[in-house]
Specification:
heterodimer; A: alpha/beta; Rossmann fold; 6-stranded mixed beta sheet; 4-stranded antiparallel beta sheet; B: alpha/beta; 9-stranded parallel beta sheet; 8 helices; about 20% helix; globular
């Protein structure tokens, strides 16, 4: 796995918002085909890390670097990162009243296709593509005619995120608590969708609190985050240990460190 | 203020009409509105003064509708440029009001005009030449959509007046387009009477060019069981003031209003509305949106008046505003004046900026900031645009707004 070049390298990343330090030296490297899981208490910086990788303008990188496909992307705009293949699946997908889901998906897909030097899709061709991808997450085409995420249930919003991932074909997908708010059946549908999209060229980072997603999608690496740092990295067994012992168990790692 | 000086010194016309004489008489002793009053205090004084700083022009230059007429089933009129044809057929008739009817109608309105509150109408009637007053009586069913254009001329002030009497049981789609030109002022007044059981979908689209000014007033009387839908859009004016006065003369009528004003650069556009219920069981649903960018100023003041006679009134007024710049200004004041004790009335106002999280969400999917902002603005505009009775295929207003610089 490690013979090819990494898709994503986060090196000693420090970041803050409103002068409040949140990330305090995070490092993580993802190679093609790898699935990483990041776990940790609420407020430890997991979601912030995902937003900073995606380029959220509210956060400042004070030290360290994010390299994507070998290039430093610290100063790239969010759309430039997205177009080049970084995808963030939101913990709380945003509702955008009045903006048609279908049109939003089409414009997003074409922005990515343009970067990939692929032909942009007109409305008719796009409808064919999106209908094919809808199957992956078992979504009804009626969702396409509604406003983006408006009136969607929690599960429908998460499925819409995975639908976007399927359309954008990212090189790295960071899925922030994609399992939260899902019932067992919806979790299986979402997990199955992610597995079908993942391939040996894609890297995936799953941010989660629960083992149940990792039962469906087995990670190659599990990282434990605490107070803006990754304090332990292990294999998939680490998640089982966490499930068994809780996060109090990880406090010892902080002390050890 | 050239116009005011001429009114004061009685040098406006050599041969005024009867209506002009009546209005001049009302204005001469007190030719300006009280700029400190609630209705005028937010008006930019220098812009208002600029509005009046043109010579009066009663003649019209050739002017085209801003979009093609691709349907034969539409009646198009340009105030001051073509005489409407009297149309009488099996299903409907559209006939010009004769001079006596026009004078009688205007006199009836004039008697209740207040110098300050109705100053815009008084000025309009004072400045409107006979050829620029169009009065129509409409009756019947299956009436084709009616499109009426008014426009200004460069370097002049023009006044245009429209009077429409929609008779009992009529069903009408009406689109008014008021266009400003570079360095011009347009005074426009519309009087609309909806008789019993009539239904009118009314669109009012007004936009200008560089340094255009507009004073636009709309007076509507709704008789019982009438329904009036009004969609309005004002943009690209150095100074524009839109005054809506609607009276449900004996209640039991429905009014729906969706209006929007967009200001940029240092423009000022204001909307004042006064909705009166003069009987029970009236209904109103009103939303007004403002969008202010750069150093511009948007104003909305709305009042709903529910006297004791107007029991069981159901009225709602919402003002939604979007500030796109730290230097732009929005003033909004929705008001209720309720005497009746058995009513359902609500009002509200919000002022916000483009939603940062929505923008980031869209950008994280590859849309540029400009594309994401455009989508957000499009969704803000859409609710209003879709209420204006002109199909997208004929005139893509949304696209026009999103493309304007």
């Amino acid at each position: 796995m490690t013979e090819s070049n990494p898709i994503l390298e986060v090196n000693n990343l420090f970041a803050s918002t409103d002068d409040l330090p949140i990330l305090k030296g995070v490092s993580i490297t993802v190679y093609p085909g790898e699935i990483h899981a990041i776990m940790g208490r609420n407020g430890c910086g997991k979601s912030t890390l995902s937003k900073i990788i995606a380029g959220h303008p509210s956060y400042n990188i004070t030290e360290g670097e994010i390299n994507f496909s070998g290039k430093n992307v610290n100063s790239l705009e969010p759309e430039e990162r997205a177009q080049s293949g970084i995808f963030l699946g939101f913990q709380y997908p945003i509702e955008i009243p009045g903006v048609s889901n279908l049109e939003f998906l089409r414009v997003s897909t074409n922005a990515r296709r343009k970067f990939l030097k692929k032909e942009e899709l007109d409305t008719f061709d796009f409808e064919d593509l999106v209908k094919e991808k809808l199957e992956l997450v078992k979504m009804d085409s009626a969702f396409l005619s509604r406003s983006v995420n408006q009136g969607f249930s929690g599960g429908e919003k998460k499925r819409n995120e995975i639908l976007q991932m399927a359309l954008l074909e990212p090189k790295i997908a960071i899925l922030d608590e994609t399992d939260s708010g899902l019932d067992i059946d919806a979790l299986r549908i979402v997990a199955s969708g992610i597995k079908k999209i993942a391939n040996n060229k894609t890297g995936i980072i799953l941010i989660t609190h629960y083992q149940r997603l990792l039962d469906e999608i087995k990670p190659d690496y599990v990282h434990v985050m605490s107070d803006g740092q990754i304090i332990k990295t292990g294999g998939s067994d680490l998640a089982l240990e966490l499930e068994k012992n809780g996060y109090e168990w990880t406090d010892n790692f902080v002390k050890e460190k | 203020m050239e116009i005011i000086e001429r009114i004061k010194t009685n040098k406006l016309f050599s041969n005024p009409t009867e209506i002009q004489k009546l209005c001049l008489k009302k204005l001469q002793s007190n030719p300006l509105p009280n700029l400190k009053s609630e209705l005028w205090r937010l008006s930019n004084k220098s812009k208002f003064s600029n509005f009046l700083d043109f010579s009066l022009n009663g003649n019209s230059t050739n002017f085209e509708f801003p979009y093609q007429n691709n349907s034969k089933n539409i009646i198009r009129l340009i105030i001051g440029e073509n005489s409407p044809t009297n149309i009488n057929n099996e299903d409907y008739s559209i006939n010009e009001l004769n001079n006596e009817e026009l004078i009688a109608y205007i006199k009836k309105n004039l008697s209740s005009f207040d110098q300050n509150e109705n100053w815009s109408e008084l000025l309009n009637l004072c400045l409107s030449f006979e050829q620029n007053i169009l009065g129509l009586r409409i009756q019947g069913t299956k009436i084709p959509p009616l499109e009426i254009l008014s426009h200004a001329s460069n370097d002049y002030i023009n006044a245009k007046t429209l009077i429409l009497i929609v008779e009992k049981n009529c069903n009408l789609d009406l689109l008014q387009i008021n266009l400003g030109t570079e360095n011009s002022s347009l005074s426009h007044s519309t009087y609309l009477c909806l008789e019993e059981n009539s239904f009118v979908n009314h669109g009012m689209v007004a936009y200008g060019e560089k340094k255009s000014n507009l004073l636009n007033s709309l007076n509507v009387i709704q008789q019982q069981n009438s329904e009036y839908n009004l969609g309005t859009l004002h943009f690209k004016f150095n100074y524009a003031r839109f005054e809506i006065r609607i009276k449900q003369s004996s209640g039991n009528a429905r009014t729906n209003i969706k209006g929007m004003q967009i200001t940029k650069n240092d423009e000022q556009i204001a909307t004042y509305t006064k909705i009166e219920f003069n009987g029970p069981n009236g209904f109103l649903d009103q939303i007004n949106k403002s969008l202010a960018d750069d150093k511009s100023h948007a104003i909305f003041e709305g009042s709903i008046i529910v006297p004791k006679i107007a029991q069981k009134t159901d009225a709602s007024q919402l003002s939604r505003n979007l500030l796109l710049s730290n230097h732009a200004q929005i003033d909004t004041k929705p008001q209720l004046e309720i005497i009746a004790d058995d009513v359902k009335c609500k009002h509200g106002a919000t002022i916000s900026q483009l939603n940062e999280e929505e923008l980031f969400y869209m950008r994280s999917r590859g849309l540029t900031l400009a594309e994401a902002s455009k989508l957000q603005l499009g969704s803000f505009f859409k609710e209003i645009i879709s209420f204006i009775p002109v199909p997208k295929g004929r005139w893509d207003l949304l696209n026009k707004l999103l493309k304007q610089d």
